[in-house]
Design goal:
This protein is of the alpha+beta class. The protein is built from 8 helices and 15 strands.
Length: 327
């Protein structure tokens, strides 16, 4: 009679002070090294992961003393993906700022911030491979794969907890530059509509939903390019998935180059001018360090491929005297 190997038991981890404040999903990605993010979310949704014997959401913030049930996972890699240093060494030249607590990366468009289904590594895994001092680095926030610009990384767990606290209380100023379709109205436009996320064909799709999570974005006109397009600065009061993209589309001015929520004809016209990516760039980041009140600020200029699009559109629109592009 054929014997079946015994199923290995789940194990339990007690959250220490260093891990307190971390999101459950991020905690598990460290505990289950090499497991795809999508599988970690399935484990949480199915209830196989529990905190203090109860089911919780992926975004649950762990507290010191919490007991986490970590289920056995079959077929996972024995460790993180091996990243050839010569393939990611160029990333070191994109570091905008670094000290003993944090690092700010000028993230390139097209590179994910972390590994996932079908992706062996992203920005954070690449950074960890570059230096022993970055092995414990973790993402403070996320950017869409198609978005470029300021990506904040914590090098120490204490700094990560402080910065996550700022994000929860609205103490971090994050600003983006985006090119949108049409003529955005003057002044600061507030888009305050709730959003929810659902899965469709294996991808996350965000939609306006009164029963969803409150989401707030403020748009300010930076430069008009005739009636065809507007360069806007966006300040987000919340950090929901695809928030700027969905809010812009909801306002009737979808982002240039957005393949999911954008306008096909608008995108095609800009593609003919050379736009090969989504026109969304995280251009500035600022906050005051908790405790000391020390102000930190960093910025990233628009990448050349985006300024080339603005210049191309400028040539098609007579420029009024004294107009400049200074967000």
């Amino acid at each position: 009679m054929k014997q079946t190997a015994a199923r290995p038991p789940a194990h339990y981890r007690d959250v220490d002070a260093d891990s307190a404040g971390q999101r459950l999903d991020n905690y598990l990605l460290g505990a289950l090294s090499g497991v795809p993010r999508s599988h970690v979310y399935r484990l949480i949704r199915s209830g196989q992961v529990r905190v203090n014997s109860g089911r919780v959401r992926a975004g649950y913030r762990l507290r010191e003393g919490d007991r986490v049930r970590v289920p056995p996972v079959y077929g996972r890699r024995s460790g993180p993906a091996e990243i050839p240093t010569n393939r990611v060494r160029w990333l070191a030249d994109r570091v905008l700022y670094e000290d003993r607590r944090i690092l700010v990366l000028d993230k390139p468009a097209g590179m994910p911030v972390h590994a996932g289904t079908g992706v062996d590594y992203g920005c954070i895994e690449a950074l960890r491979s570059l230096s022993p001092g970055l092995r414990a680095a973790d993402l403070v926030h996320r950017l869409d794969r198609g978005t470029s610009g300021c990506l904040l990384v914590a090098k120490r767990r204490a700094a990560l907890r402080q910065l996550h606290g700022l994000l929860r209380t609205g103490g971090m100023d994050k600003r983006y530059l985006a090119l949108v379709r049409g003529r955005w109205p003057n002044g600061i436009s507030k888009v305050d509509v709730s959003l929810s996320t659902r899965r469709r064909g294996g991808e996350s799709v965000v939609q306006v939903d009164p029963a969803g999570k409150r989401s707030l974005s403020r748009f300010r006109v930076v430069e008009r390019l005739g009636d065809r397009a507007t360069l806007v600065e966006v300040v987000i009061g919340t950090g929901r998935t695809h928030q700027i993209r969905v809010h812009a589309a909801h306002a009737g001015h979808p982002l240039a180059g957005d393949p999911r929520y954008g306008d096909l004809r608008f995108n095609a016209g800009l593609s003919a001018r050379g736009l090969k990516r989504m026109f969304l760039h995280s251009h500035a980041l600022a906050f005051d360090w908790p405790g000391s009140g020390e102000t930190f600020a960093v910025s990233s200029p628009l990448p050349p491929e985006l300024t080339a699009i603005l210049d191309s559109l400028d040539q098609a629109v007579p420029a009024p005297a004294g107009r400049g592009r200074s967000p």
